[in-house]
Amino acid sequence: MQTRSKGNQNLLFNDNIDRLTRELRERRDTADLEHNHPLRMADEQDDHNLPANIGAGDAPRNHRQGQGIVPPAVQNNNFEIKSGLISMIQGNKFHGLPMEDPLDHLDEFDRLCSLTKINGVSEDGFKLRLFPFSLGDKAHIWEKNLPHGSITSWDDCKKAFLAKFFSNARTARLRNEISGFAQKNGESFCEAWERFKSYTNQCPHHGFSKASLLSTLYRGALPRIRMLLDTASNGNFQNKDVAEGWELVENLAQSDVDDEQYQVQDGEGNQLEEISYINNQGGYKGYNNFKTNNPNLSYRSTNVANPQDQVYPPQQQQVIEKFNAGY
Where in this chain does the record put each Retrotransposon gag domain (predicted)? Predict the structure, then answer.
């Protein structure tokens, strides 16, 4: 019994030794891997290159450029982006302020980029190289903090830009403007229609169908406009086909513009006639005496023997009568 007990103890002892040996070997291998890691070796090399003084590590000694936006390589190695285009883009910077519209910035950026085409340079390669020049302040900081190489296409860049600067609150506000649209008192229909379309253009992801948009516009229009739409639709605008309804609204808005222009022109004509009347001091409408009296056109009679034959304008005649009455 004693011999068997000693044998079991020896087996357990040997197992413990083997387990400890394996753990030590694994720890040693892990330590070797960490020690030989390229980043660790680079850091250690940097540490070795530092001077021995206490403040040596307070200033950076190297620079690793971090680019979240990485343009693709181009086939044309000799291409050049003109400085004039860069200046125009820098003159239309987006700063990340709440009152700025990121969609407007993308539209303007695309418009400027369309002025130049370079052979051998793709749209992604061209726009991704220029887009950082169009950012300032908060937007510039956002671009610098992007993970390196996270954006390699223009579509990815636009999505990331809008995700950052087109807030959910902005979307909710514009959707409310659309769904609760109402034409203002004193606002012409063409002005109301343009304002309504501006809301939909500022929020292209509003989610409303064209039929829903037309129904919202109809409900929010003034009674006079609803009556015109119903009359032009044989009684009920809501029963009209969507495409025809959209065309009808466009035509009504255009006719409203033409009517406004006619009223302005007619009003300007009346105003000119009134000014002419005033300058003529009560003379007939349409007369405007811009010149001094011409002796060849004077009212002085050449018939000295019969001065009563002289014909005077009405106002001048009254003055003469008063003058003669004084004698």
Answer: 129-220
